[in-house]
């Protein structure tokens, strides 16, 4: 992904750059991208548009967006492929824009790490609402120090709900996606009690679980890789047959990472 053709949306908002939330929009339809960007700028965001995915790596590093919006169809490359590249390097929230309702693509994107999927045909106002919703889930509410949830410490691990962060026993932060973090918190809050796939799906992916839906299992698999010393022999997140998963405790040893 070599740098090429990066175009920044016109800034018509009176807010300063420091006051705006940065969005990166990747869409090969320049007209659509320009129109959506203009709308988002009017509502207080700073946007940068890419019409060629070849520039994605450079802009992701230099622009440091708070959220990425990916078109599902990007010429010879799919949004899913770009999302996989993104998730290997960052946990920045990501919304997929799609021109058609394909259940398979939706499931795959959620499994890979998308935070939401939006039809391109919907009104810009709904896109704006989805963006705000994902950002709220990603950042959590701004809390004062006195109201900040307590930091849970187990075997040296720290679960800091105020910062929406998890730190391993060696002090290093765990790079979790929004879905991974929310799944871990959900399991941790129900420690020692089995949690069904449907319960996780409804709270994390905002949809009921159905037979064949692998989104929850994929998130658990990725969590185990980041937390368990031996992901193939999990001790922290155990499988409960025909039901779901149960969180036992943070590991006493170092994570595999």
What does this structure look like?
By secondary structure, the chain is of the alpha/beta class. It has 2 domains: about 5-140, Rossmann fold, CATH 3.40.50.2300; about 150-245, Arc Repressor Mutant, subunit A. About 35% of the residues lie in helices and about 20% in strands. The protein has a 6-stranded mixed beta sheet with strand order 1-3-2-4-7-8, sandwiched between helices. The protein starts with 5 loop residues before the first strand and ends in a 10-residue tail after the last strand.
Topology:
Elements: E1 6-8, E2 21-26, H1 30-42, E3 45-50, H2 56-63, E4 67-71, E5 73-74, E6 77-78, H3 79-87, E7 94-98, H4 103-112, E8 116-119, H5 124-139, E9 151-154, E10 157-160, E11 165-167, H6 178-189, E12 195-196, H7 197-205, H8 215-227, E13 237-240, E14 244-247
Parallel strand pairs: 2-3, 2-4, 4-7, 7-8
Antiparallel strand pairs: 1-3, 5-6, 9-10, 10-11, 12-14, 13-14
Helix pairs in contact: 3-4, 4-8, 6-7, 6-8
Coarse shape: globular
Tally of individual domains: 2
Strand content: 15-25%
Number of helices: 8
Helix content: 25-40%
Uncertain segments? 1-19, 141-148
The rounded distance between the terminal residues' Cα atoms is 26 Å
């Amino acid at each position: 992904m070599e740098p090429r053709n990066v175009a920044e949306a016109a800034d018509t908002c009176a807010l300063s750059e420091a006051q705006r939330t940065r969005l990166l929009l990747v869409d090969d339809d320049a007209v659509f991208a320009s129109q959506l960007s203009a709308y988002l700028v009017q509502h207080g965001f700073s946007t940068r548009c890419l019409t060629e995915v070849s520039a994605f790596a450079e802009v992701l590093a230099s622009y440091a967006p708070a959220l990425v919006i990916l078109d599902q169809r990007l010429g010879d490359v799919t949004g899913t492929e770009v999302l996989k590249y993104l998730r290997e390097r960052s946990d920045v929230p990501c919304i997929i824009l799609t021109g058609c309702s394909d259940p398979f693509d939706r499931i795959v994107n959620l499994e890979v790490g998308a935070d939401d999927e939006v039809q391109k045909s919907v009104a810009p106002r709904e896109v704006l609402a989805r963006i705000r919703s994902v950002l709220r889930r990603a950042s959590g509410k701004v809390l004062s120090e006195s109201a900040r949830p307590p930091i849970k410490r187990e075997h040296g691990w720290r679960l800091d709900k105020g910062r929406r962060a998890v730190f391993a026993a060696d002090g290093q932060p765990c790079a979790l996606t929004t879905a991974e973090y929310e799944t871990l918190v959900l399991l941790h809050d129900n420690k020692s009690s089995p949690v069904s796939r449907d319960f996780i799906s409804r709270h994390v992916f905002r949809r009921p679980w159905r037979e064949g839906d692998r989104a929850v299992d994929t998130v658990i698999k990725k969590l185990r890789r980041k937390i368990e010393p031996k992901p193939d022999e999990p001790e922290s997140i155990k499988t409960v047959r025909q039901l779901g998963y149960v969180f036992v405790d943070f590991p006493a040893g170092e994570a595999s990472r």
